[in-house]
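Quick entry, no commentary yet.
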Amino acid sequence: MSGESAAHIRLVERLVAVVKARHQPPRGLLLLADHPAFGANRPPSIGGFLPDVFASDLPATFEVVGEAKTFPDLESERSARQIRAFLDHLAVRPASTFYLAVPPFTGARARAILNRLCEPAHAHVRLEIIDGFA
């Protein structure tokens, strides 16, 4: 997370809040984030990329991967490779969800990018866009 912009950090915080609110399994939630508040509890590398948020219950019946993208980064080829790697990972896991947090007013563009990157193998991955900081 070192060197990340304040906007990116706020998007990660938004991701953490949404995942905590939406995923409350009976036995608790394993939640890891690439954020200073989580210390060394960082998400695992997936396809050579570190997601901003990773969550699962234990034993695992679902997995969540979340990624925060500021507007300039959303359009990059690196981001496309990263999102594909996360979708590929989730495609073989039951009840999986991919969250993409973007700044206000960029949700439509984020949806178009996700639609372009999704392949038939990703069909059962639930896609969620979080548009905004609040």
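second:
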Amino acid sequence: MLISFAATNYRSICERQVFNFRAATHIDHTEMIEHLIPFKKEHLLKSGIVYGANAAGKSNFFKALGTLQLLVLHSNTYQLEQPIAGYNPFKLDKQHGALPTFLEIEFIAKDQKKYVYEVGFNQKQIVSESLFFYANDKSLRKSLLYMREKNQATVFGDAYRGKRDFFLNENQLLLSKAGVELVPILHPAFRFFRQNLILIPVKDDSLEAALLNTTAELLIHKSFNEHKQNIISIIKAADIGIANIFVQRNELESTATHRKNIKFEHYVFEADKMVGTTVLELSEQSEGTRKLLGIASILVAALLKGETVIIDELDTHLHPLVTRMLIKLFHQTDTNPNNAQLIFSTQDVSLIDKDLFRRDQIYFVDKQLQGHSTIGRLSDFKGVSKVVPLTKWYLLGLFSGVPAVNDAGITLTFPKTVNG
């Protein structure tokens, strides 16, 4: 479970900005209690929705987290002097353009321990890295596992057990090395990035192909039969014309082509009476249905395993009512028994709804005059009316995160035409 994430000097994020998924302490925790995950003495959020104007920097918060995940999972393979992937400092200030990027994350791994992980890096090297954890339920102070600074020896805490003689290139993370070596005490933290944090960027063709390949695998294997039924139930709930989904498998084909063989069984009617079914190809389905199929497979797996799913622009090609349906799966105990989390960005203002989200689940990203992004929550604003619709307040700019549209400044010129 994700508790918080902070970024400094990354793309449009200049000064340290914190994406906090703790429930706001000034809101009664009994308010929409089904939206909260109790963990020891605090409550975490099951979902979060992120708004902001175009180019405000919403995606940059997700990209920053994706960069940290990429470094943890793959920096162990970096060759000597290979540039660090993802280093992209704030460039609208001359000073920050030469400074390191710092990324920080606080999370709960599958061993039910809370971890705090921090990394600093520039294009050439890791300048700092540290991992702390809270040893047990009574721990009020975090315990050091390890800490390293540029050009200094790694310091291991009293709680650390295992290998200490890591050989690291300047561009490699120790946690990344530990993920492929026998260091059991570090494996829960590493597995969080590999297995429990699912990031889905803005839709593109390669992403859709990957999602549908995953879906095809779930539909094929008998061991995933429950997954299959859950996916189909979501699709049928959104489109009452679909009776079934299956994969017409050719044993000679590679896994990469399975998505091409996903079939949709649709009801056939005659004079308003259902008289049978017919099979349609994946290519005959709308973009919305294809998007929903791919997303549904990810969300079903997350709900089963208790994963954290972060999606940039979840609602693209989806009807608002379908988006609401997906969100509610994470809020309801019977469909989310393992405390999975869903965090996503959107431009759909109809989802700013007090009946759908608590005030601390609604985030706003704003771009300041100097070009840097800031993030806050609706719960940060005082005096929010319980009568006036939140959508109206948002569109009026009272919560920030809306574009400064000046249509009076639009000037259009066209070539003169000769009337004939």
